[in-house]
Amino acid sequence: MTKFRNAQTIKTLCERAEAHALRDQQQEPGAEHFLLAALELEDDTARLAFSRAGAIPDGLHSAIEQQYSEALSSLGLPIGVTDRPTVSVASPAPNGVFSASVSGQDVMQELAKTRARHSPLLGSHIVAIVASMPHGVAARALRSMGVDLDDLRLSAEAVSRERKRA
User: Fold this and answer.
1) According to the model, what pLDDT value does residue 47 have?
2) CA distance 44 to 134
3) Which molecular-function annotations from GO does this UniProt entry contain (predicted)?
4) Cα atoms found within 13 Å of the Cα of residue 16, Cβ hemisphere only
C-alpha cells in the first residue's frame, strides 16, 4: 500500500511541479517548482517544516519570481517582457514523457536514492532534499526570504521523523 501511495505522491509532485514551471514559462520544472509542489501536498509536512524554520511558505513563489527577474536584469534583458509565448498550464509534455531541468532531475534522483527512508513519501522529504542543494534558484530564493538552508533541512527531517512515528 505504501509503494502505491508513494507512486501517487510522486505523480502528484511531478504534475504540480510541471504546472508551476509552465506558469513561470519554463519548459521543465526545477527544484524550485518541486518545492512549490511539496507545499501543496495534502500531508502539510512541507508547510510545517517551513514554519518550524521560521519561514513563511506563502512567500516562496514571490521570492522565486524575484530570482528570475534578477537573472534577466543581470543579463540586460527587460524584466516582465518575454519573447516566449505563454504556455498553457494544461499543456502536456510534447513527447508524453516527464522531463525536468537539471535541478529537478537532482531532486528526483536524490528521492530515488533515499526512497527506503520515505515510507510514506511526504512533502517534508522534498523540502529536506531541496534545502540540501546550496546552489540554484530555490537556494537563492530561500536565502532571499531569510531562510537558513541548514535550519530548513533539519526542520524538514525532524517533521519527517515525527510523522513516520505517528
Assistant:
1) 98
2) 24
3) ATP binding; peptidase activity
4) 17
Expressed in percent and rounded to 5, the helix, strand and coil fractions of the chain are: 65, 0, 35
Domain boundaries along the sequence of the chain:
2-75+101-165
Given a contact cutoff of 8 angstroms between Cβ atoms, the answer to whether 75 and 43 are in contact is no
One-letter amino acid at 91 equals S
75: pLDDT confidence band, cut at 50, 70 and 90?
Answer: confident
Domain at 2-75+101-165: CATH architecture:
Orthogonal Bundle (1.10)
The tens digit of pLDDT for each residue in 8-29 reads: 999 999 999 999 999 988 889 9
How many angstroms separate the CA atoms of 112 and 10, rounded? 11
Residue indicated by cell numbers 537532482 = 106
